[in-house]
């Protein structure tokens, strides 16, 4: 009986620890590290309905893109739960440098929650200041510029001499990436992302009638 009681207490303690444990966001099991280099660390986050992440720590400047429209509940450490609806295509930035965030996230909806967290690890610092690309600017700061792209604006637009970029396709069948000679080098599908090395000369393309919603981040 004593052994059973001790085992039960141990299980309860382990469960309580799992609920309250704090880990860096890159170590949280639902935050999958799918890309890391000198400039960025891309965490692909999937949370199923009814599932809750561990408490995790955000302390690195980051940009986010929501791929799904999902009702999500979040709790900052030692505070009450807050409920919000996240909309597919929404992109935003937070520095976290002077406001480190410790929280956990729960999917309070009946559909999966999908978001990417791109941590900005190092600046690019080009030799000359880069002018904004001819796309819709979602936001711009000292670290990154975020653009919204649709098929109508990016077809055959040659891009060259830029910083490292991440393209994330929220909606649309597919987007093709061509090199400067017009050869297809990558294919981007909805819900996926693509890293583009600094200095690459390229263009995007999609079918003329495609409904495309893509976010492009350029590291400064």
Folded structure, characterized:
The chain is built from 2 helices and 18 strands. The strands form 4 sheets. Strands 1-4-9-6-7 form a 5-stranded mixed sheet, with no helix packed on it. The chain has a 5-stranded antiparallel sheet with strand order 2-3-10-5-8, with no helix packed on it. A 5-stranded antiparallel sheet has the order 11-12-18-13-16. The chain has 2 domains: 22-120, Jelly Rolls, CATH 2.60.120; 136-219, Jelly Rolls (Sandwich), CATH 2.60.120.10. Helices cover 10% and strands 47% of the residues. The radius of gyration is 20 Å and the shape is globular. It has 220 residues and is mainly beta. The N and C termini lie far apart (64 Å). It has helices at residues 2-20, 151-154; strands spanning 22-24, 31-36, 40-47, 55-58, 62-66, 70-76, 81-86, 91-94, 101-107, 113-120, 136-140, 144-149, 165-171, 174-179, 184-189, 192-196, 202-205, 213-219.
Radius of gyration: 20 Å
- Largest sheet, order of strands side by side? 1-4-9-6-7
Q: Helices and strands: which structural class?
A: mainly beta
Largest β sheet strand count, sense and barrel closure: 5 strands, mixed
The structural domain count equals 2
Average pLDDT for all residues: 89
Structural descriptors:
220 residues, Jelly Rolls, five-stranded antiparallel sheet, globular
Secondary structure layout:
Blueprint: H1 2-20, E1 22-24, E2 31-36, E3 40-47, E4 55-58, E5 62-66, E6 70-76, E7 81-86, E8 91-94, E9 101-107, E10 113-120, E11 136-140, E12 144-149, H2 151-154, E13 165-171, E14 174-179, E15 184-189, E16 192-196, E17 202-205, E18 213-219
Parallel strand pairs: 1-4
Antiparallel strand pairs: 2-3, 3-10, 4-9, 5-8, 5-10, 6-7, 6-9, 11-12, 12-18, 13-16, 13-18, 14-15, 14-17
């Amino acid at each position: 009986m004593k052994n059973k009681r001790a085992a039960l207490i141990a299980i309860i303690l382990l469960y309580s620890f799992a609920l309250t444990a704090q880990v860096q966001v890159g170590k949280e099991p639902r935050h999958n590290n799918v890309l890391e280099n000198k400039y960025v660390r891309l965490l692909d986050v999937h949370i199923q309905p009814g599932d809750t992440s561990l408490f995790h720590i955000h302390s690195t400047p980051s940009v986010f893109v929501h791929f799904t429209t999902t009702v999500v509940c979040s709790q900052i450490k030692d505070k009450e739960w807050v409920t919000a609806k996240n909309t597919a295509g929404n992109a935003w930035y937070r520095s976290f440098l002077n406001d480190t965030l410790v929280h956990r996230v729960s999917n309070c909806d009946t559909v999966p929650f999908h978001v990417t967290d791109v941590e900005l690890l190092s600046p690019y610092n080009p030799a000359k200041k880069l002018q904004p690309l001819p796309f819709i600017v979602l936001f711009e700061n000292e670290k990154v510029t975020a653009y919204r792209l649709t098929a109508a604006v990016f077809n055959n637009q040659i891009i060259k001499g830029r910083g490292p970029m991440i393209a994330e396709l929220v909606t649309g069948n597919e987007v093709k990436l061509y090199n400067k000679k017009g050869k297809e080098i990558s294919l981007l599908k909805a819900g996926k992302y693509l890293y583009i090395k600094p200095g690459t000369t390229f263009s995007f393309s999609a079918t003329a009638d495609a409904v495309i919603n893509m976010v492009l981040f350029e590291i400064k």
